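Checklist before submission:
- one chain only
- standard amino acids only
- sequence pasted in full

Submission:
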Amino acid sequence: MTDWLFPAALALTGTMGVLMGLWGLWYLISGLACVRKPQDYGLHPAQTKFAILIAARNEEMVIGPLVNSLLTQSYPAELYDIWVIPNNCTDNTALAARSFGAKVLECTVPVKSKGEVLRFAYNRLRGRRYDAWLVFDADNVVDRNFLAEMNNVRLTGVQAAQGYRDSKNPYDTALSGCSSIYYWMMDRFHNGGKAGLGLSAMIGGTGFMVTQSLLDKLGGWRTETISEDMEITVQALLAGERVAYAPKAITYDEQPLTWEQSFKQRRRWTSGTIQVAEAYLPALAQELGERPRLALLDMVSTMILPAYQLAALAGLVCTALTAALGGRTLLQAVLLGLAGACGNIAWAALTATAAAGIVITLEGKWDRRLWKALGTYWLFLLTWLPIATASFWKRTTVWEEIRHTRTMAPQLPGR
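Returned file contents:
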């Protein structure tokens, strides 16, 4: 009666392995394309009038360094305005922003997500004749050449661009180091690789530009999901535009210090990705059928990442069960199942650690303070599997506050 179980389980495990391997192969190919030299956008005279939007919820402690870094840009002060949009605040974020020199636009409507705050600000400010809109998180610090670089990018005809997301505090804890490595991976292998293939980079929530021309084409700022960054990326692709990668436009982002903060953050990201997939996969499928483009197919592969993570967890269970079915006694089955699962995890840990070491090297980030992060990066990725499972079960639909406290200059290697 049970003779069929082992070959059936073996076939199922093999099929899942092949499908997941194809997905992984595409990411390997696109990641290797990062070896191509990034596009040189050249030097152009300052012409772009920027509106800088900063959605802020209880960010009194960190808003000052961001505003200071924006006020000291190597770009004409008359060509940009800094708008802080406090929302749902219980502290003195607005007062702090004004005292440091930013303009403040109080959010007067109920909002549940960052995208709703940005839409509110855009609708209030769109009559001021800005050429492009920049978005930052309140905990960021911005390189002094950021605006000049985005001006260079826009004047080559680019309609949307994502800058380089660096880390403000990679050495605080092992977890902040893991998050930093993740962003360096996104910079180098995802956005750098996509740019190398002429595909679209991914807008990453902060340090990005969208032109007024593109927003006119899209019908305004109309994101509806909790993942407004991915949603804008998809909207741009469906409108026939791609997101350019601008590695010289650098933003330093504060990383979570604890696993609890990281779980909350990644749960929100995953829930948002699922929301965007549900809302836009039908439109992407239709567009692929009518006007096939590799950039659209690549976007689909990115949007199904939570499903891939869920499949990876299912694959781990199938591997363990398949191995267990080879045992003749209960003890043998348990030992074989554990061995199968541990073998898979060990291989994943080895490849994740190797990839982390490679990106740290390529990005010039080697520092002895990163050893704990390098040793636990595999665990950081592994914990994404239960996060994805929980997000499919019950999604986060509200932008919850993660308190930022690191009022500091970016930590650099060797210091």
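Reviewer check: The domain at 1-415 is CATH 3.90.550.10 (Spore Coat Polysaccharide Biosynthesis Protein SpsA; Chain A).
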